[in-house]
Design goal:
With 312 residues, this protein is an alpha/beta fold. Helices cover 48% and strands 13% of the residues. The protein contains 12 helices and 10 strands. Strand 1 and strand 2 form a beta hairpin. The longest helix has 27 residues, at 2-28. The protein starts with a helix and ends in a 9-residue tail after the last helix.
Length: 312
């Protein structure tokens, strides 16, 4: 009987400790009332554009790549700009969903800037790759849903960035894959780990061993993207579908704190055993109990009206 009792005690201690730890995370993950909102860039020649939609789109921020001469590849400058955008979004309590897309027709992101990479001394390659890997971690850790709209090619680091997002929407004509073995390297931005979690070890190994490129329809069949849509004349079918996920009353109307806590519970629980995952669920659920939104949800249900959530 000693082993079961020890396991139970361990689970109890994990849950108790987790509640305290996650209370601090709750405050640091974007729940402070400080609002840092700016137009990162808006010119037609800017390499990275951050815009805030309004009206019926209010609450959605859009980060768009715009580096056509380099197929939106990740240079040192580009990675630094993306990190700045991530930090801007993290502390903006008005933003409830982030969509990452490309403003370059036919291309989402071609991964690392290989022309720049060829000029980097070998001793600097490791730190550069580590910075790109941290970028994907920071995207995955944003406290709001992040959607990748893939209307064009996403390979290498571009695919790794998409895998770091919570949801992926692709046009059926979009091409995507982790092709690093063709260059005698392996994915270094989280691809070896996130593709496994999306498609399973056997599929991930086959795709990485061969460097195979899939289209959007094939990726959807393997569970790598959530939705695949036929491309239209605008070349932005995936982006439009990403917006529909919001305007279709599927995400935005839900309690924003609840959505954030659900994301944290899923992300944390996916990395541990079931008992520990349930402890995370209990801890994050506890964060929703004292909120005004929870009371508003109950009141709206009783009054038979749509709730009006404020993220409080």
């Amino acid at each position: 009987m000693a082993a079961p009792m020890q396991a139970s005690l361990k689970s109890h201690r994990l849950c108790t400790a987790t509640v305290g730890i996650l209370r601090a995370q709750f405050l640091s993950a974007g729940y402070c009332r400080w609002q840092h909102k700016k137009q990162y860039s808006s010119g037609k020649d800017d390499e990275l554009r951050l815009s805030y939609l309004d009206g019926e789109h209010s609450g959605i921020a859009v980060c768009a790549f715009n580096r056509p001469e380099a197929r939106n590849s990740f240079s040192r400058k580009m990675i630094s700009m993306i990190e700045e955008v991530i930090q801007t979004i993290r502390f903006d309590t008005n933003v409830r969903t982030l969509i990452i897309k490309s403003d370059v027709p036919g291309i989402f992101c071609a991964g690392a800037d290989l022309k720049e990479r060829a000029t980097i001394p070998p001793k600097e390659v490791g730190p550069f790759v580590a910075k790109g890997r941290q970028m994907t971690v920071d995207i995955a850790n944003l406290p709001i849903p992040v959607i990748a709209a893939l209307d064009g090619t996403a390979v290498g680091g571009g695919m790794e960035l998409a895998l770091a997002c919570d949801l992926r929407v692709a046009s059926t004509s979009a091409k995507m894959g982790l092709v690093e073995t063709k260059l005698a390297i392996i994915p270094g931005g989280g691809g070896t780990q996130r593709l496994v979690r999306a498609a399973g070890p056997a599929i991930a190994k086959e795709l990485m061993f061969t460097g195979r490129v899939l289209d959007g329809k094939q990726a959807a069949m393997l569970g790598i993207v959530n939705h695949a849509v036929e491309q239209d004349e605008s070349g932005e079918a995936a982006y439009k579908r990403a917006l529909e996920l919001e305007l279709g009353k599927e995400i935005l109307p839900q309690g924003p704190i609840a959505v954030r806590m659900a994301k944290l519970a899923i992300n944390k629980g996916a990395e541990v055993d079931l008992a520990s995952g349930l402890a995370f669920e209990e801890a994050y659920y506890a964060q929703t109990i004292p909120t005004k939104d929870r009371l508003e949800g109950l009141k709206a249900f009783k009054e038979k009206r749509p709730p009006v959530y404020k993220g409080e």
